[in-house]
Amino acid sequence: MSPWNSPWLLLIAANLFWAGNIVLGRGVAGMVPPVTLAWFRWTGAFCVAMTFALPLLRRDLPTLLRHWRIMLLLSAVGIASYNTMCYIGLNTTTALNVLLLQSAMPLVIIVWAFVLFRDRPSLRQSAGVAVSLAGVAAIAARGSLDVLMHLQINHGDLWILAAIVVNGPYYALLRRRPPVHPLSFLVAAMGIGSCMMLPFMLAELAGGARIHGGAPAWLAIAYIAVFPSLIAYLFFNRGVELLGSALAGQSMHLMPLFGSVLAVLFLGERFHPYHALGIALIGAGILLASLKTAPAPLPVLSRNRM
Question: Which is it for the CA torsion 40, 161, 257, 186, positive or negative?
Fold first, then answer.
């Protein structure tokens, strides 16, 4: 089986790149203004993608224009709003808190899938979510119930929670995206999202915000524009196409796991037994949820192939 037809390989890579985005987003919080970072992220990804996606985009443009309403909605909740709100939150909260809160995304996706399409999660799928959340909680609480009971929510955490709620419809609505090549869809969504953010970025710069930090800040922007933006979204969208939104959403429990590893490698944090416990629970939850009967292929998305 080719990597493009291996959903979990694609989803694992996407979540690894997203974990790196959170760690870097926190690292440059004092150097790059949040809206400016979000705008450079998607504008940069759009420019890179256009170097090889232009023929596909030209071919699929009539179809994209016919589905302009869903394109505007997906671009707003999946590109413009979510990432901007996350970078705002990272200015006043820790990367670990963000990684923990991201574990709520599979639950939010299931709720939105029920609200929008009346999709009911299976008992096994719900149990898998609960087991994975227990693993994330074990990592966040450092294996201590007392630490877990005293976790504090600050304004940055509230921004992240709001971003997750706003972002949920993106994954639930992917089944309604236009029947075009996955790269055409992603490039169009990035371009629309970039245009939506532009007035807010200009207002931020007009207020005196500037990029500081020299080469390290620009290297971080370059990574964020390519890996967690263009590549990760393309991989995740393909994973949703192959598995469905609810099951693919389970993979997001991997973000706290990968974030912990990145913290050990780049921030000098130590690996403890509770990390092993959390990793085991996260893996068990994903396995439990993935054992359910595979959903029928989505008619619109099934026509899109690389």
Answer: negative
Tens-place pLDDT, residues 184-206: 999 999 999 999 999 999 999 99
C-alpha separations of 251 from 8, 11, 39 in Å: 8, 6, 26
CA pair distance 5, 101, nearest whole angstrom: 29
Residue 150's SS3 state is: coil
Total domains in the fold of the chain: 1
- Is-contact 228 20, C-beta < 8 A? yes
Reported pTM: 0.79
Model confidence band, residue 304 (pLDDT cutoffs 50, 70, 90): very low
pLDDT score, position 297: 45
At 106 the three-state DSSP class reads helix
At position 166, the amino acid (one-letter code) is V
CA angle at 64 for the pair 58 and 172, rounded to the nearest 5°: 135
Closest CA to 245 of 101, 106, 100, 79: 106
Compute the distance between CA of residue 162 and CA of residue 168 in angstroms, rounded to an integer: 10
Which positions ≥6 away from 11 have C-beta within 8 Å? 235, 236, 239, 243, 248, 251, 254
Alpha helices (runs of H) in 28-94, residue ranges in sequence order: 34-66, 68-75, 81-89
Residue 18 near residue 199 (C-beta atoms within 8 A): no
- How far apart (Å, rounded) are the C-alpha atoms in residues 290 and 284? 10
- Quote the distance between the C-alpha of residue 273 and its chain's center: 27
Which residue in 111, 128, 129 sits closest to 120, CA to CA? 111
Expressed as residue numbers, the domain containing 207 is 3-303
Buried b (16+ CB within 10 A) or exposed e, 182-213: bbbbbbbbbbbbbebbeebbeebeeeeeebee
